[in-house]
Amino acid sequence: MKTNQNHPQILFQPTFGNRPEKYIGRDGIIEQFLEGLREPIGSRNRCTLFLGQRGMGKTALLLELGDRAQAEGYVVARVTAHEGMPSAIIEQFQLNGSKFFDNDKRKLTGVNAGVLGFSFGLTFSEAAQRQYGFRSKMSLLCDRLAEKGEGALILIDEVHSSAAMREVASAYQELVGDRKNVAIAMAGLPHAVSSVLNDKVLTFLNRAPRVELGLISINMIRAYFERAFKTVGIGATDEILDRAAMATRGFPYLMQLIGYYLIQYTPDGASITDSIMDKVEQAALGDLDENVFKPILNPLSDNDLVFLRAMARLGGTVTTSRLQAAVGRKGPSLQTYRKRLIEGGVIESPRRGELVFAVPYLDEYLLKEK
């Protein structure tokens, strides 16, 4: 394996939380969200929920949206959901918006500071810092950014139902009602987003567009592999490109893994061989086992796993009737597991009475796992 940095590995970033040089397969989703930012203040398209299982590119998508939004005139605050999230969002807006106030170093004292809420730039006056909560501070920041022609975009990763989530989402709804130039995009696992939508305080989010991040076109992946390998001077026949693209099964994280290992294992100026592909597939699937499958399966009950292993043994698209016969259970009992596993993004129901695995290779992993 290469240990030097001669190859631009940024083409492939198979680490959660990182982003490759080019984000492929989601152009329509990105443009739809940007169109929402261009729509009048208060548009429902300024609030979007992105759902996807681990490895579907949620974090990378938020990073891409943040970069694109800055070009549209938005200051961005990107955070991972946690209890200190409201304060973290304020700090991000102050940090990322400060460049617009580089020349604004004047000190405001007395009544002016009390009215405006800022001592200078985006730094709150002592009174505002002490007395105002998240919603009021966000209102002040939106007004201050508007002076520079900038809007405010909040990006929240790993969203889940919590007191902090309620505070942020409720404040967003009020800011929209006050006609502030603010937008929000949230990404999370399907069951986590579902818990947020079922929160009685946050029912307004059910009106927001929901985007499910699924698999990427194999043809798009093949085309990207071809361009990437040419960029780094690696040869690849049509047969190798087909094999590499098909091996990903359209899974974004696996695309990054396979692309990364192909560059690592192929000598400089050489061509990818079938033996290299064998090593790459073994390494990539090993990472997939550790970083995707185990985190997905660890929280599940023994009965959930019985359900999933029965699906894996049946193979392909499984009908409810065949699954009932395989596990020896019917009615409400089976429906409970089905519903929970669908909400968790482990399986999907493409048509009524049919089930498939939501993540490629998970069925094979279940069959070999002891």
What would you note in describing this structure?
By secondary structure, the chain is α/β, with parallel strands linked by helices. It folds into three domains: 27-212, Rossmann fold (3-Layer(aba) Sandwich); 218-296; 300-368, Arc Repressor Mutant, subunit A, CATH 1.10.10.10. The protein has helices at 27-38, 58-71, 85-97, 110-116, 126-131, 134-146, 163-177, 190-197, 218-231, 238-248, 252-265, 274-297, 302-314, 320-327, 332-343, 362-368; strands spanning 47-51, 74-80, 118-120, 123-124, 151-157, 182-188, 210-212, 318-319, 347-348, 354-357. The protein has a five-stranded parallel sheet, sandwiched between helices. It has a three-stranded antiparallel sheet with strand order 8-10-9. A two-stranded antiparallel ribbon has the order 3-4. Strand 9 (347-348) and strand 10 (354-357) form a beta hairpin. Helix 6 (134-146) crosses helix 7 (163-177) and helix 10 (238-248) packs across helix 11 (252-265). The longest helix has 24 residues, at 274-297. Residues 3-8 and 106-115 have low confidence and may be disordered.
